[in-house]
Amino acid sequence: MPRATPSLLTQLDCENADANIKDGRPAARLLTLGGGPCLQITPGKLQADGRYALSKYWLFSYSLEGHAHRIGLGSCDKLPLDRARVEALLLQKQVENASGTNSAKSAGSKTSSSTRWPRNIAQTV
């Protein structure tokens, strides 16, 4: 598959994406689409036709308070690219809000337990 710029990937590109090959064996691959959504491609068992079964799963990557995190959005088979991008945008807004909340919390203001991170974000997706 020819390399495409992250923002130019299409649904077909994601469906046709393959795992990396290292030492003749497939290895997991992470395609970053920019702005948070990623496609994780994980090889499975060797099939009768000589190809490996692949699992493709959407992830949302973000950083909060200097720590990297990932949240699963769903299978590539059931969640199309455009929907994964929408979900990532919604989550990115929550990350931005949480960043503001956490900086206010560290400055001495108190927040309720309902605004804690990341527990609530997973419940809203």
Q: How much beta, percentage-wise?
A: 25-35%
Backbone shape: elongated
Low-pLDDT stretches are 103-125
| Fourth CATH level, the homologous superfamily | Integrase, DNA-binding domain
Based on the structure given, which CATH architecture is correct? 2-Layer Sandwich
Number of strands: 6
Instruction: Determine the number of helices (DSSP H or I, runs of at least 4 residues).
Output: 3
Oligomer: single chain
Distance between the termini: 31 Å
Descriptive key words:
about 120 residues; Double Stranded RNA Binding Domain
Q: Can you lay out the helices and strands and say which pair or pack?
A:
Blueprint: H1 11-16, E1 20-22, E2 25-27, E3 29-32, E4 37-46, E5 52-64, E6 67-75, H2 81-106, H3 119-124
What does the model show?
With 125 residues, this protein is of the alpha+beta class. It has one domain: Double Stranded RNA Binding Domain. It is built from 3 helices and 6 strands. The protein has helices spanning 11-16, 81-106, 119-124; strands at 20-22, 25-27, 29-32, 37-46, 52-64, 67-75. The strands form 2 sheets. It has a 4-stranded antiparallel β-sheet with strand order 3-4-5-6. Strands 1-2 form a two-stranded antiparallel ribbon. A hairpin with a 2-residue loop joins strand 1 (20-22) and strand 2 (25-27). Residues 103-125 have low confidence and may be disordered.
